[in-house]
User: What shape does this take?
Amino acid sequence: MLAETNFTAAFPVSEPVVRLRDFHRSFGANTVIDGLNLSIAPGEFVALLGRSGGGKTTLLRTLAGLDSVGGQDVLIPNSRAVVFQDARLLPWKKVWRNVALGLKGPGVRERAEAALNEVGLGHRIDAWPLTLSGGEAQRVALARALVREPKLLLLDEPFAALDALTRIKMHALVLELWRVHRPAILMVTHDVDEAVALADRILVLDAGRIVAEEHITVQRGERGDVGRVLRQRLLGHLGCEITSEHVLSAVDVGASILPFPQGASA
Amino acid sequence: MPRSTQFHRRLASLFSGHWVSPVVFLILWEGGSRLGLIPKSTLAAPSAVIGTLVEMLTTGELPDNLWVSFLRVAAGLVIGLSIGIGLALAAGLSRQGEAAIDPIMQIKRTIPTLALTPLFIVWFGIGETPKVALIAFASIFPVYLNLYSGIRGVDVRLIEGARSFGLSRAEVIWHVILPGALPSLLVGLRYSLSVSILVLVVAEQINASAGLGYLVNNARDFMRTDIIVVCLLVYAALGLGADGLVRLIERRALAWRPNLAEA
Ligand SMILES: Nc1ncnc2c1ncn2[C@@H]1O[C@H](COP(=O)(O)OP(=O)(O)O)[C@@H](O)[C@H]1O
Ligand SMILES: [Mg+2]
Assistant: This one.
């Protein structure tokens, strides 16, 4: 069943792959992350919920090593990979070269091909990215992330732009890839059900801090009853009073419109 | 009956083609010349122009002078494009480069190159140097402006995506920024090529003793409108050739673009 907030028994032994202590991040006067503590164990699947503009992407960028942390206590693994909401494939490189981006050594094409086979796209290895559907592009992005065998896989609303059917297939694919490769995963999502279906642990980020943490010990696929209870609780944490079906739109609508801040320089 | 309608249809479609009006124009021109309505000193007849073209080809007069002009354009372009691309890379890829280079280039943009002709003659005399220098100078800017804005316009999300996989700055430039700016570079290249031909025409008015401009000047002095028209045709062919060259490069280098990519 649902465990307590300070549950640690499942991942106590090994060193965490991610550890942030009292982490702060602000843009000018706007403090986005305010004294955040986070640790993620190897192979753990963590979902991060929160309202739009709550700092989820900012946190994920820090974990991706995209922003400098200014000497704060931040531990992130060297091997990490990100899948963004938009696949961010380079349109001028064929699919396999996108997957192989930055890889070195012999057999790069073979490695890319193996990764593409894993996501079921071995037949599009020589396609141009602009000829892919949204779901296919996102699968290529997954292959590109996993071909590096990352210790930490960061997913920023990776399925938000996909249709419902494709999204369900992607959930299954992500779980399968996670079971095979065992990276630690931090998945940002605005879909409470997605978080409940996939994660070991769910965090709710609000006002720059983690305001709630839920561990799920029930097997995936058998989470129906537990999920309903958990969902109500999480929605409560998200400050959402609606208890009925139409939940998604109330939680985080803006995030899917502008998924990424564009302040960085070329 | 079916035969004749088919014939008529074909005839009709034949006469709705794009080639009709130019041909009619040529026929009127030729007719006007033969009837003496268009004096030879005003404009030579198309048939006379073709005759002159053949003659100039066989005597080697046209190829020789074309070669001289071609070398001027080529030399000017090599210099101008190198400088333009070099400056655009420096300004596009580094903040210091931008601060140092871009303001000067924006000022330069306001000066029409051809207005510099007298100054260039004072500096470089009336030999080959001012001609090549004018072409080089004129071709710097289109390629600079387009490549620079192309580099700056590369999607930051793609750059961050690449950075998130641990690519170094040099790798990001090579795999993301330069390919992303390539379409703009080719646009700039096309403008630079056409501007170089435009400047060639004027630059060769500077006391040339060979080249297309020399032919035109000579022909003007002897009222040889046929030679002038031949040279106009050659200028047009040069322009078309330059455009075709860039299109060819585009087809090869931008095969990934949606309108060109095969599904
Ligand atoms: N580069 C930036 N410059 C200025 N403000 C930013 C920047 N990136 C994010 N922010 C601000 O930080 C806050 C959190 O943004 P973000 O992390 O994208 O939220 P989320 O992903 O949870 O929707 C927002 O108020 C946003 O305006
Ligand atoms: Mg976000």
The beta strands of chain A are 18-27, 30-40, 45-50, 74-75, 80-83, 152-156, 184-188, 201-206, 209-215.
